[in-house]
Write a structure and sequence with these properties.
244 residues, Rossmann fold, 2 domains, six-stranded parallel beta sheet, 10 helices
Length: 244
C-alpha cells in the first residue's frame, strides 16, 4: 500500500482553483460599468479607450507585483483615472473606484476541472487544505465569498491572501502564514499547487515544500522560473501523485 507523502496541501487561487471567462471577465465588466457611469456625466468613451487605460494600469501592477510592492484594487482604479485624466468631481471619482473594485461581487468565475472531487478526496484522507493567493484588483473578501457561493470554501482549513498578509509569493512570509493557518505542518510534508513558476513553484521550493505546477488553465513557460517537483494538467491527478 502506498503511504501518503503529505499531511497538507495548499492551493494557489487564480488559474488553479478558479479562472476568468475571457469574454465575461472582470476587465470587461469594469469597462461596461465605467462606460455607463461616465456617459451619465457626458464623457462618452469607447471600450478600446477604457481597455487601454486598464491595460496600462495592469502593466503598472505587474511591475509592482514583481517588486513585492502591494497595490489594491482602489489604487489600480485611481491609476486608471489618472491615465484617463477626465474632468470629474470627487464624488464621481469615488463612485468609479467603488465600481472598479466591486464588480467582482457580481462575477462568477469558472471552477477548474476535477477540483471539488479532489478537495473531497483530500478531506476524506484527513489532509489539511489551505489557500495561498496573490490578490490583484479584486479583494480577498470577494474571492472567499465566491468560493463560499460555489460550495468550495468549506473544504479549506485556512488561507493566506496577500492583501491581508501584506506580502506576495514567493516571499516566505506568506507561505509561513498559510502553514500557520492549517496547523503548522512540517513544510516537507506539504504540497503547494499553483500555476506560476516565479511565485508558486519558486516559493514552495524555497520553503522545502513539494511544488506541484498546475497547467490545466495556464501552462507557464519554462523561462519564467524553476521546474516544479511535479506537473499536473488535471486535479484528478493530484491524490495518487501524493500517495493518497
Amino acid at each position: 500500500m502506498t503511504s501518503r507523502l503529505v499531511d497538507a496541501v495548499t492551493f494557489d487561487h487564480w488559474n488553479t482553483l478558479v479562472f476568468e471567462d475571457g469574454d465575461m471577465g472582470l476587465s470587461h465588466m469594469r469597462v461596461d460599468a465605467w462606460a455607463a457611469r461616465l456617459a451619465e456625466e457626458g464623457h462618452v468613451l469607447s471600450s478600446d479607450t477604457l481597455h487601454s487605460a486598464f491595460n496600462e494600469t495592469w502593466q503598472a501592477f505587474i511591475k509592482d507585483w514583481h517588486s513585492g510592492v502591494q497595490r489594491s484594487g482602489a489604487d489600480a482604479a485611481a491609476h486608471a483615472l489618472e491615465v484617463l485624466a477626465l474632468p470629474i468631481t470627487d464624488e464621481v471619482h469615488a463612485e468609479l473606484i467603488e465600481l472598479f473594485v466591486g464588480v467582482g461581487d457580481r462575477a462568477e468565475f469558472g471552477v477548474t476541472d476535477g477540483l471539488e472531487d479532489t478537495l473531497q478526496a483530500l478531506r476524506d484522507n484527513d489532509i489539511r487544505i489551505g489557500i495561498i493567493c496573490d490578490v490583484g484588483f479584486t479583494p480577498s473578501t470577494t474571492l472567499r465569498n465566491h468560493l463560499e457561493r460555489r460550495g468550495l470554501l468549506k473544504y479549506f482549513d485556512g488561507w493566506s491572501f496577500s492583501d491581508e498578509v501584506g506580502t506576495y509569493k514567493p516571499d516566505k512570509a506568506i507561505f509561513e502564514h498559510a502553514l500557520g493557518t492549517i496547523g503548522n505542518p512540517a513544510p516537507g510534508r506539504v504540497a503547494h499547487v499553483g500555476d506560476l513558476r516565479r511565485t508558486d513553484v519558486a516559493g514552495a521550493l524555497a520553503m522545502g515544500m513539494i511544488a506541484v505546477r498546475y497547467s490545466g488553465v495556464f501552462d507557464d513557460p519554462a523561462e519564467n522560473g524553476p521546474d516544479a517537483t511535479h506537473t499536473i494538467s488535471h486535479h484528478a491527478e493530484l491524490p495518487a501523485l501524493l500517495g493518497i
